[in-house]
Every structure is written in structure tokens, then in C-alpha cells.
Design brief:
Elements lengths: L1 H22 L1 H7 L3 H4 L6 E4 L5 E5 L11 H15 L7 E4 L3 H5 L3 E15 L6 H9 L8 H6 L1 H9 L2 E2 L10 E12 H6 L2 H9 L3
Antiparallel strand pairs: 1-4, 2-6, 3-6, 4-5, 4-6
Length: about 210
């Protein structure tokens, strides 16, 4: 039984490597020049309500806010679309470089964008929830549209502070991944199968 399990794990790592090489090349080309990623110090993490060793999934285009009223969510998206051409709050997978933060949302997965993608983050925004609290003085669940309209200039400043690209140094900021699909690999599986070394091997060839 133990040998059978080992064979399955080996087959899974081979499948993951195959997906990375065939479908994740744009992302691999971006991270191969980031020393901290190469050293395995951080990855893109996301907490998912899953138990799979790995999976691929489409990025939702209708994401609903967890802790923010819909009218405030839409207000933010309006400004993200004006500045970046994308309603990022509704059309992104939310990630973090902080594995502990990701685990609070579900099982911890390491994320690899598939195909073309864009990544946005503001190094001063750990979570938009906290940014809204700082700006309005109100808990996000109780914020009304008139509250954000009153502080529109301040919110625009926050939105304009977003940077496109994978962070080159560690940050606790929330990260929005915009694209069509992603590969997710369970963190425990990653560690147990020495995927750091396997990723470095891949990055030497892309």
C-alpha cells in the first residue's frame, strides 16, 4: 500500500510539472528572476475550500464580497476599471504571500496562473477592508455608498497605488490575480514532494 501511494505521488508530481511547463510559462518567465521565489521563501498562496492535492480552475468573473456591501464593492470596481480597465474586485482570485493569512480562508494552496494573466497589489493595502476602515472610520460591513462617495478622492489615491506584477520582495499586501485559469497545488503536498527543487529545475529550462 505504501509503495502504491508513492507511485501515485510520483505520477501527481509528473502531472503538475507537465501542466506548469505547458500552461504556466508566462508566469514562470516572470518569477524566474525573483531571488526570493527561487529560494522558496514565498509563493502566491490562496485559501481554498478543497481537499485535492492539486487542481486547475477558472477564475470567477462574478466574485461577490465577503465583508463589504455590494454597493461599496461596485464603487471600488468602477474606479479599478477606470484606471486599469478591469473590474478587479469582481474578476480576480485573491492571493497573498503570507501562508498563514491564506490558511484562514481554507486549505492552503500555491497558485500558478495558467496562460495570460495580470497581477496587481498595493504594498500599503494589506486588505481593502482595513483601507476602507482607515479612510471612513467605519467597519466595512456598515459602510454605505454615501460614505465612500464622501471620501472618493482618498479611495482613488488608494486604487492608483496598485502596482502590476509579481512582488519582487515580500509583502503582506493582498494580491489580485486576473486571468482565465490557475493551477493550485496543496502546500503540504508541495513540501512533502520537494517541489521547490522541481520548480527550480523547471525555471532553468524556460
Amino acid at each position: 500500500m505504501k509503495f502504491y501511494s508513492y507511485i501515485n505521488e510520483t505520477n501527481d508530481t509528473d502531472k503538475i510539472i507537465d501542466i506548469m511547463i505547458k500552461k504556466c510559462k508566462p508566469f514562470l518567465n516572470e518569477i524566474k528572476n525573483i531571488p526570493d521565489v527561487l529560494d522558496g521563501k514565498y509563493y502566491l498562496y490562496s485559501g481554498r475550500d478543497k481537499n485535492d492535492k492539486y487542481f486547475t480552475q477558472k477564475i470567477r468573473k462574478d466574485r461577490q464580497p465577503l465583508n463589504t456591501p455590494k454597493e461599496v464593492h461596485d464603487f471600488l470596481d468602477k474606479h479599478f476599471q477606470k484606471i486599469y480597465g478591469i473590474k478587479l474586485r469582481s474578476n480576480s482570485l485573491f492571493c497573498t504571500l503570507n501562508r498563514s493569512d491564506a490558511s484562514s480562508y481554507g486549505s492552503t494552496y500555491i497558485i500558478f496562473p495558467i496562460g495570460k494573466y495580470k497581477i496587481f497589489f498595493n504594498p500599503n493595502v494589506l486588505d481593502m477592508v482595513y483601507a476602507l476602515l482607515d479612510i471612513t472610520g467605519k467597519a466595512p460591513v456598515s459602510i454605505k455608498k454615501e460614505d465612500v462617495e464622501k471620501h472618493e478622492d482618498e479611495i482613488i489615491d488608494v486604487v492608483q497605488g496598485y502596482i502590476e506584477g509579481v512582488p519582487s520582495i515580500y509583502t503582506d499586501a493582498e494580491i489580485m490575480l486576473y486571468g482565465s485559469e490557475y493551477l493550485a497545488i496543496d502546500h503540504s503536498f508541495w513540501v512533502n514532494n520537494n517541489m521547490d527543487d522541481k520548480l527550480n529545475g523547471i525555471l532553468r529550462t524556460v
